[in-house]
Amino acid sequence: MNEQFTLKRTLQLDIERTEEGQFTLLAKDEHDFTLAPDELASYLFFSNERELFGLLAHTGEHHLQLRADQLLHAFSDMHPYVSFQGLAKKDDTAITSIQEASDAWMKADIWNYAEVDDNDIRFNYDQAGISKEAAYFIHDAVRGKLTTTAIHPDQFPALLPHLKQFGWPGETSSAIPVNVAFRLTEPEDDSDSEWLLETVIVSERGTHWAPAVRKLLSPIEEALPAKWKPYAKEITKRQAEMTSFITSVELSFQESFLSQSMADAEVRLFIQHDLALLQSFGYPIILPAWLKSVTESRMRIRTNADTHSYKSATGLDEVLSFDWNFSLAGHEIDRDSFRKLVDENREYIRAGDQWFHIDPLWLKKIRELMDRADAGEWTVKDLLFQDIPEEFIPLEEDEELDDPLFAFTMQQSLRNYMEMLSDKKGLPATGISKDLHAELRPYQEEGYNWLVFMRDNRFGACLADDMGLGKTIQLITYLLNVHGRAETATPSLIICPTSVLGNWQKEIERFAPTLSVYTHYGPSRAKDEQFKERIEQLKPDIILTTYGTSTQDGEMLAETEFASITLDEAQNIKNMQTKQSRAIRKLHGQHHIALTGTPIENRLSELWAIFDFIHKGYFGGFRKFTDDYIIPIERDDSEAVKRKLRAKIRPFLLRRTKNDPELQLNLPKKLEQNEYCPLTTEQAALYESFLEETKFKLETLTGFERKGLILKMLSRLKQLCNHPALFLKEPNTSAMQMMSRSEKLDRIVSMAGDIAGNGEQCLIFTQYIGMGQLIRQCLSELYAIDAPFLTGSMPKGQRDRLVEAFQDGEFPIFILSLKAGGTGLNLTGANHVLHADRWWNPAVENQATDRAYRIGQTKFVHVHKFVTIGTIEEKIDKMLEEKAALSADLIQSSQWLTELTDRELDELLSFDR
């Protein structure tokens, strides 16, 4: 008895569908050994050499990635010695559906069961006699094949009739020695003649043949020369295939060669729609040479704007006048000829020996703009604040486009005036009150003049100078001007964080003692009628309050129209949906001002909230702002929309930085560097264990719960990077024992001790009370240094005394909670800044650094940022660099932390030892 020996292998497949509609395949043999992707490809495509070699670029370390159409082709001709089964039950089900779909896919009649559904091709599986799952695979296969063409989804309806009648375009082979092509010919002159679309035969030598005029209506076989008559059937079929794509014109031929007259509008549709389909599948199309480069020759329109008066602020209301010029390929066109082109709705016109294409809708739009402009609809104010069609918005100097279709220019005198307003240079000098007890720097005087100019023209203002450049003194000078006017009858309101309330009191008293100040703050503050009586009695120039108080008393404060309302650290209203932001944006002032060193920290919605306060309605409602700016910028990263937004906010925003050479600040240099620290063995073990636990929890959560867990997890990991005792919530032991458990703590304490030993001063910022207390304990035990710790719970009076004592050099090290001490404090006595743990927002971290690096600093400032190696701190540090660059441009992505993709989150939740 002979034993039969078989070499047939059975492979187990794991099949996963990607979001893009492709499939990843992993195969294991009978010994549970994972096959190399190349070997799997050789089994799947053993009979299709071209497909096999083309797949090499789509293999990963273990997986093979296929489009659905490739997958169905693979299962249509299986390897004789290899069979496949699923690695899991779901894979068995998938293989059954793939095999069923493959059998149907290879049958020509499958397209008879296809139908168009919202610009998509789907299959009626009941009529086709296949399962719903198989129909899904076939749908993905169609989409996969379309990715290899230039077909757009809205062209699916035009493609479907062809598929039903002829199958997939270009897959039918022909042995005839000629090609069938379409030829488009322009009119003979610029009169009433039309375009001609016709079928031509291209010989092996490349010559073009078309039937004589007398044979245009004859059947194809009769019209052909004798040598090509044997190919009449193939030529007829190929012409039918090609004409099935034409939707731009209703064809009038039957069995003859195509010879179709076309109007301008039909030619445009043919070029825009039919041509793309035909060329995508390799059908030859012969176009006029000039039409291939039609975009290079279009009508140019230039207009020059001017006014009759532009030498004072009243010039903002001057009506713009426009001078129009038209040209085509360098030839001037008079105004009447242009209007005739628009009225006749022309698209293709002849100039000399050349033909040109023009867009009639675009010309019509320009005609409407001309009518509106000539009617005096727009003023200099509209031009400055971009309340004018975008065609009239001049490009930034470094963003000039080559040969624009519509070029907007301004007379030099108007341009100079516009530059003065946009750059805030050379504005009318307002005069500084003699009651100001200070001397303004030149750039501060410019800022003061700008604030007054914006008030006089009823425009809100955002003064966004770097921290430390003197926003406070500029505003105080402005307030002296406002309250020195006879018409000012109500007080100005300043809203600020609680931590700088005392600072505002002292600064106003120091620089403008003639201004009377009333502080509306504290549990015993006057309310309702008592508040009104108090204000009427005292008649203060300035009312000082905090964000929290103004929120609680919002309805009461909204009953008064203040001479001005100023928000200090205006980023506090960035979250527009909070009760605080909504309450403040409901307040009424004759002029609204925002002071901030960070006009936008994370999202464009913050920019909207600030602008909705300073100049309500400028960007419209938030829904409109989302459609116009947030989606194009944060989702699509549109440079054009970024440019438009910068132009829109520029007149309202005055921002100078310490690095601006024009300011001539003569500040000392600043060096920032990371101090990298490894985790201890204890920290590393806890870190890895917590990561595994968190990853498991994340898999069970979605939406809001998932975001909450991510934020909680990040905070816990940062505490662990600082010290395991903080993570484990253990009580502190001796300084030496605590430092032995954290390299970071050891480095921070040692560095701070060295700085103090050298006679220098430093600031240490941390987000965690426990970390601050731990550093303070270690400094006390090891260096006998009593370092105060400023937190949000510290009373204002004690905080002010500590700041003054540090500036006087009474103690060398000051520990601060990042949120409580990150803004509003002047701590130039320090020339070292230590960030014990990293804040996830570079703007907030930079604000903290600017407590030391600001005007008044005379020493070199060294900033040390402590980062634990291989952890989220190091990974997010890289993200912070990108984030800081975006923030500097006032444009920042919304994709951050809780909105990270799964892949980014997996990378973040890994530990590199």
Strands, helices and their partners?
Blueprint (H helix, E strand, L loop, with lengths): L8 E9 L5 E6 L8 H8 L4 H6 L9 E3 L1 H9 L5 E5 L2 H17 L8 E3 L4 E3 L1 H4 L3 H15 L9 H11 L12 E7 L9 E8 L5 E2 L10 H4 L8 H12 L15 E4 L1 H17 L4 E2 L2 H4 L6 E8 L14 E8 L2 E3 L1 H10 L3 E4 L2 E4 L2 H15 L5 H5 L21 E5 L1 H12 L18 H15 L4 E3 L7 H12 L9 E5 L4 H11 L5 E4 L7 H11 L3 E5 H6 L1 H4 L3 E2 L2 E4 L10 H7 L2 E2 L2 E4 L8 H11 L7 H14 L3 H11 L3 E2 L15 E8 L3 H18 L4 H20 L1 H5 L6 H6 L2 H15 L4 E5 L2 H15 L5 E2 L5 H12 L5 E5 H4 L10 E4 L6 H8 L11 E8 L3 H17 L13 H7 L5
Parallel strand pairs: 1-4, 7-11, 12-17, 18-25, 18-26, 19-21, 19-23, 20-21, 22-24, 23-25, 27-32, 28-30, 28-31, 29-30, 31-32
Antiparallel strand pairs: 1-2, 2-3, 5-6, 7-8, 8-9, 8-10, 12-13, 13-14, 15-16
Helix pairs in contact: 3-4, 3-6, 4-6, 12-13, 16-17, 24-25, 26-27, 30-31
Q: Please, could you describe this protein's structure?
A:
The protein contains 36 helices and 32 strands. It is of the alpha/beta class and 913 residues long. Strand 13 and strand 14 form a beta hairpin.
In the CATH scheme, what's the topology name of the largest domain?
Rossmann fold
Q: Uncertain segments of ≥5 residues (pLDDT<50)?
A: 1-6, 52-57, 293-297, 309-314, 395-404, 888-895
Put simply, the count of helices is: 36
> Structural class, please?
alpha/beta
What is the CA-based Rg, rounded?
Answer: 37 Å
- The CATH architecture of the largest domain comes to 3-Layer(aba) Sandwich
Would you count the extended β strands for me? 32
CATH class of the largest domain: Alpha Beta
Fraction of residues in β-strands: 15-25%
What gross morphology would you assign?
flat
Keywords: ATP-binding, Helicase, Hydrolase, Nucleotide-binding
EC number: 3.6.4.-
Domain Helicase C-terminal: 744-909
InterPro entries: DUF3670 (IPR022138), Helicase_ATP-bd (IPR014001), Helicase_C-like (IPR001650), P-loop_NTPase (IPR027417), SNF2-like_sf (IPR038718), SNF2/RAD54-like_C (IPR049730), SNF2_N (IPR000330)
